[in-house]
């Protein structure tokens, strides 16, 4: 019997010749996405924010899979820094064919305890950052006549959650961005999103008491946290040749936390 935690392997060579930029790549989820894209043959731009040691380690791991890599550091909320990082990456690897907007910010705070600076921090990373990176990548995709984008939202965009009003708002906004952009740049550029449920990553760990895990997973079908390795194959599918009819869609990778 197959373990339901074992994701399907990416088809080797499916993405050979493509260059993929993954933002927030050195985190657990970003790294898992990078590994799956690399197994499918994509060269990887490993984006990070002042985490060069971890980025270089990930690049080495990906290169062992037979692909080319480059690491770049930039604050996704800084237009000029992102533009410089993209120029460097594309000079070294070639034009960006695939963009995975994975970088994000999540903070547990009740609305009545949230000040404007804290609210803006979440919006800046989770929405402005996606806009900036996408805005700088899309023109090249349109010029070349092809591109694929996957935005990482969350099941909380649909469910809401106590103590996460800002995060839920930003991730819901990202879905509107995905749908509108899909209509604007499709079918030349294929734009989709995924909405994971709670994933066992360091971002979740500070909150993950047994009570917290139970609360977040009790109404899901699988009744547990997801694993980073269970997300990568869906991203690879959405940017691969098997998903030509997916435009402006959201895949619910939440173990049945949101149905329908």
Structure characterization notes:
This protein is an alpha/beta fold. It has one domain (19-251): Rossmann fold, CATH 3.40.50. It is built from eight helices and seven strands. It has a seven-stranded parallel beta sheet, with helices on both faces. Helix 1 packs across helix 8 and helix 3 (79-93) packs parallel to helix 4.
Give keywords.
single chain, Rossmann fold, NAD(P)-bd_dom_sf, SDR family oxidoreductase, 260 residues, alpha/beta, KR_dom
Structural class: alpha/beta
- Span between termini: 28 Å
Rounded mean pLDDT score: 92
Strand order of the largest sheet: 3-2-1-4-5-6-7
CA-based shape? globular
CATH topology, what is it called? Rossmann fold
User: What's the CATH superfamily, by name?
Assistant: NAD(P)-binding Rossmann-like Domain
Tell me the Rg in angstroms: 17 Å
- The tally of strands reads 7
Report on the biggest sheet.
7 strands, parallel
Domain Ketoreductase: 18-202
Pfam family, one: adh_short_C2
InterPro entries: KR_dom, NAD(P)-bd_dom_sf, Sc_DH/Rdtase_CS, SDR, SDR_fam
Protein name: SDR family oxidoreductase
Topology:
Elements: E1 19-22, H1 28-39, E2 43-48, H2 52-63, E3 69-73, H3 79-93, E4 98-101, H4 116-144, E5 147-152, H5 156-159, H6 165-185, E6 189-194, H7 210-217, H8 232-239, E7 250-251
Parallel strand pairs: 1-2, 1-4, 2-3, 4-5, 5-6, 6-7
Helix pairs in contact: 1-2, 1-8, 3-4, 4-6
Produce a short descriptive summary.
With 260 residues, this protein is α/β, with parallel strands linked by helices. It has helices spanning 28-39, 52-63, 79-93, 116-144, 156-159, 165-185, 210-217, 232-239, and strands spanning 19-22, 43-48, 69-73, 98-101, 147-152, 189-194, 250-251. It has a seven-stranded parallel β-sheet with strand order 3-2-1-4-5-6-7, with helices on both faces.
């Amino acid at each position: 019997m197959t373990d339901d935690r074992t994701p399907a392997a990416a088809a080797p060579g499916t993405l050979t010749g493509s260059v993929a930029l993954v933002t927030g790549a050195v985190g657990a989820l970003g790294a898992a996405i990078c590994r799956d894209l690399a197994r499918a043959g994509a060269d990887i731009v490993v984006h990070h924010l002042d985490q060069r040691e971890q980025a270089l380690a990930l690049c080495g791991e990906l290169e062992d899979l037979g692909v080319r890599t480059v690491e770049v550091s930039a604050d996704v909320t800084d237009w000029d820094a992102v533009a410089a990082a993209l120029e460097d990456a594309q000079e070294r690897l070639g034009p960006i064919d695939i963009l995975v907007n994975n970088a994000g910010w999540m903070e547990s705070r009740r609305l009545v305890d949230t000040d404007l600076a804290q609210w803006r921090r979440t919006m800046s990373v989770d929405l402005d950052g996606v806009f900036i990176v996408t805005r700088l990548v899309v023109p090249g995709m349109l010029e070349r006549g092809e591109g694929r984008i996957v935005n990482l939202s969350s099941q909380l965009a649909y469910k809401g959650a106590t103590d996460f009003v800002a995060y839920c708002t930003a991730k819901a906004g990202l879905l509107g961005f995905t749908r509108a952009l899909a209509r604007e740049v499709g079918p030349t550029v294929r734009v989709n999103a995924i909405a994971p449920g709670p994933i066992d990553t360091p971002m979740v760990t500070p909150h993950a008491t047994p009570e917290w895990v139970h609360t977040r997973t009790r109404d899901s079908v699988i009744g547990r946290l997801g694993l980073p390795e269970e997300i990568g194959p869906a991203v690879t599918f959405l940017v691969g040749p098997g998903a030509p009819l997916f435009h402006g869609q959201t895949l619910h990778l939440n173990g049945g936390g949101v149905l329908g």
